[in-house]
Structures are given as structure tokens and as C-alpha cells.
Specification:
Length: 299
């Protein structure tokens, strides 16, 4: 008996470590209402709880999916405090998906993405994220029965793993973003992107723009269409239930006079951390395809 008790004590720290691990998405609601009905209610309840809806769209031209992109003063203040590439964390996403006759509502887990994007600086802004999580829960409770189950990875990732995350040796980390172009100034970079949006770029459509006040940081989200866009790669990687609809849209960040995007081998992997290499091999060209699509905005 004593030996068994000793064995349990040895296992306890490991069990606690798994319990504290973070997963990329929060399952918020399961509803019999339609996607179109829910998106109206959710937008209103987010706004009532101090969360700003900054864009929404139908990803991958899939009528069973809808994405709402949101920000808040908590996220804005966190980015202003740390700056730089943390601008990618100025928005989060909520997905509504028709799955097996139910509408599933999920959103990107704030603490997971905060740790991934802020890294060792996350402690400085952790209260911002816990406050936002509380607001999101209240908005969901105003819409239906809150589930609050995390998903997107069987075991999840520890904060230490998220801080230095890469899919495997040799793959990019968060700091290894792709510099799409450099301009003479922040405004020149913005003007170029806005001109491209107005003129129209093949298979790239604006979903949202978010400027960080008093910072030379502007975050854009784009829908990617065509034979190398979302409709190609999303069905290959998003095959489990609940769906990872809140993975999209893909972003670029104007950071000072430079325009950056997160490398596809990071941005996709951090969103689907349990995907096997055989699945990733089926979208081997996707990171390069996304870069080519986004590069049209700055060339």
C-alpha cells in the first residue's frame, strides 16, 4: 500500500502540470439556434460587455461557419504596454459553426494566445487577459448556457512551451515573423496597403483593420480565397470536432515602417498543435502560398 501511495505522489506533479496546461480554444455554447441568429445575439452581447466587434466574415466560403473578430481596451492596453510584435495579439476571434445539427460557439482562449504572443512579458499584462476572459464569459452567459470547456489540443501546452513554441526543431517561433516589405515610414506602409485594398487584390479581401492608439502598430485581417486560399487548406487541417473555426482570418501587422506576417509554419501550428506531420505535409505549400497572397498588398 505504501508503495502504491508513493507512486501516486510521484504522479501528482505530472497530473497538476497537465491540468494547468492551456489549450487554444474555449467551447462557449451549444445551441439549437442557427448560425445567422446567433451571430446577431453574440455581437450585441459582446458590445454590451465592453468588447468591440471589429470585423466578421464567412471563412473558406463555407456557409456552416462564421467568424467574429473582436478587440477590447484590455487587449489594446496590453499591446501598448509591451509593443512590437505583440500587436498581433490586439484582436481575438470567435467562431460559430454548424456541427451535427447544432450551432457551436467557440473563441480563441485569451490566456493561451496571450502567453504565445507576449511570451516572457505576459505577467505584465496577465490581469488584462483575466479581465477579458471574465467579460467573454458574461457575454456568452447572456446568450445561452456557458460550457467553458477548453479544446484544440489533447494535453495542451504549458506557459513555458507557449513562450518558446515551435512545431519542431528548425521550425519558426513567434519572433521569426516574415517581413513582407519595408517602407520609408509607418504612414507610407499604411498608404500602400490601403491603396492595394481600394484597387483590389486577387483572392485577398479585407476583414478588419485595427490601429493601436499612440503606437505605430496597425493590425489587418484578410480573407484568402482562390485555389490556394482558405477553401483549400482549412478542410485538410480542421477535421476534428469541435471545429477550429476561430483560427481565421490571417493577419498582417504594420510595425513601424515594416509589414510583417506570422510564418505559416508557426501561425498554423500554434492553432493546431496536435496535428501530425502527415497532415502538415498535405499543406506543405500553404505557408508560401499565404505569403505570396499577402505580398500582393505591399508590392
Amino acid at each position: 500500500m505504501k508503495a502504491f501511495q508513493f507512486f501516486i505522489l510521484l504522479l501528482l506533479p505530472l497530473q497538476l502540470a497537465f491540468a494547468q496546461n492551456l489549450k487554444p480554444y474555449t467551447l462557449a455554447l451549444e445551441s439549437s439556434e442557427s448560425v445567422s441568429e446567433l451571430k446577431v445575439q453574440i455581437e450585441a452581447n459582446l458590445e454590451l460587455n465592453g468588447i468591440e466587434v471589429i470585423g466578421q466574415y464567412q471563412p473558406a466560403d463555407d456557409s456552416s461557419r462564421w467568424v467574429i473578430i473582436f478587440s477590447s481596451q484590455e487587449l489594446i492596453n496590453a499591446v501598448k504596454q509591451v509593443g512590437g510584435r505583440t500587436g498581433f495579439g490586439a484582436s481575438l476571434r470567435l467562431g460559430i459553426t454548424d456541427e451535427n445539427g447544432k450551432s457551436i460557439v467557440s473563441y480563441t482562449n485569451p490566456e493561451y494566445w496571450g502567453n504565445a504572443y507576449f511570451g516572457e512579458e505576459f505577467e505584465k499584462v496577465s490581469t488584462n487577459y483575466s479581465t477579458l476572459s471574465d467579460k467573454l464569459q458574461r457575454a456568452m452567459e447572456a446568450t445561452g448556457t456557458f460550457v467553458g470547456r477548453y479544446f484544440g489540443s489533447k494535453k495542451g501546452l504549458s506557459t513555458g512551451q507557449l513562450t518558446k513554441y515551435r512545431y519542431m526543431l528548425g521550425m519558426p517561433r513567434f519572433g521569426d515573423s516574415v517581413r513582407l516589405e519595408e517602407f520609408g515610414s509607418h504612414q507610407e506602409a499604411i498608404d500602400k496597403i490601403e491603396s492595394a485594398i481600394q484597387s483590389g487584390v486577387p483572392n485577398v479581401e479585407l476583414v478588419y483593420r485595427l490601429d493601436i492608439p499612440d503606437q505605430e502598430l496597425s493590425l489587418y485581417g484578410f480573407a484568402l480565397s482562390g485555389d490556394k486560399g482558405e477553401g483549400r487548406f482549412l478542410p485538410i487541417i480542421d477535421f476534428d470536432n469541435p471545429k477550429h473555426t476561430a483560427f481565421l482570418p490571417y493577419e498582417i501587422l504594420v510595425m513601424g515602417d515594416e509589414v510583417h506576417m506570422l510564418h505559416g509554419r508557426y501561425r498554423i501550428a500554434i492553432s493546431f498543435p496536435d496535428l501530425k506531420m502527415r497532415t502538415f505535409s498535405r499543406i506543405m505549400s500553404t505557408p508560401g502560398d499565404i505569403e505570396k497572397l499577402m505580398s500582393q498588398l505591399v508590392k
